[in-house]
Amino acid sequence: MSAHTLFQIISRRYEYGAMIITSNKSYVEWGEIFGDEILATAILDRLIYHSTTFNIKGESYRLKEKKKAGIQPASIRGN
After folding, report:
1. Percentage of the chain surpassing pLDDT 90?
2. Number of domains into which the chain is organized
3. Is residue 79 part of a domain?
4. Fewer Cβ close by (within 10 Å): the C or N end of the chain?
5. What is the mean pLDDT of residues 4-21?
6. What integer pLDDT is reported at residue 38 of this predicted model?
7. What CA–CA distance (Å, rounded) separates 31 from 79?
8. Which pLDDT value is given to residue 29?
9. Is 25 inside a domain boundary?
10. Where is the IstB-like ATP-binding domain (predicted)?
11. What is the DSSP string of 9-52?
């Protein structure tokens, strides 16, 4: 899905009902992810308006379970 398509979906939806969006990236990284700072700002503007956000920090639950089971993840991107 392109950033422009995501923007269109969010623009049509944001005043009409609830949305739940999850991401493992901070807001400041969205411009780089989408390759367009202005479009990322517009998307975030619509998502954050009248919203409640939660920032959860900690180890990945899935990785924690793998470690507990003795399974080593192949690699983790970005680390």
Report:
1. 19
2. 1
3. no
4. C
5. 87
6. 93
7. 20
8. 94
9. yes
10. 3-69
11. HHHHHTTTS------SS-GGGHHHHHT-HHHHHHHHHHHHTT--
User: What are 2-11's contacts with CB under 8 Å, separation 24+?
Assistant: 3/34, 3/35, 3/36, 3/39, 3/40, 3/43, 4/39, 6/34, 6/43, 7/39, 7/42, 7/43, 10/43, 10/46, 10/47, 11/46
| The pLDDT of residue 66 is above 60 | yes
pLDDT at 39: 92
* Pairwise CA distance, residues 40 & 29, whole Å: 9
Tell me what pLDDT residue 32 has: 93
Backbone angles phi, psi at 49, to 5 degrees: -60, 125
In a domain, 76, yes or no: no
Which structural domain, as residue segments, surrounds residue 20?
A: 3-68
Task: Tell me how far apart the alpha carbons of residues 10 and 13 are, in angstroms, rounded to a whole number.
Answer: 5
CB 64 within 8 A of CB 31: no
Residue 77 lies in a domain: no
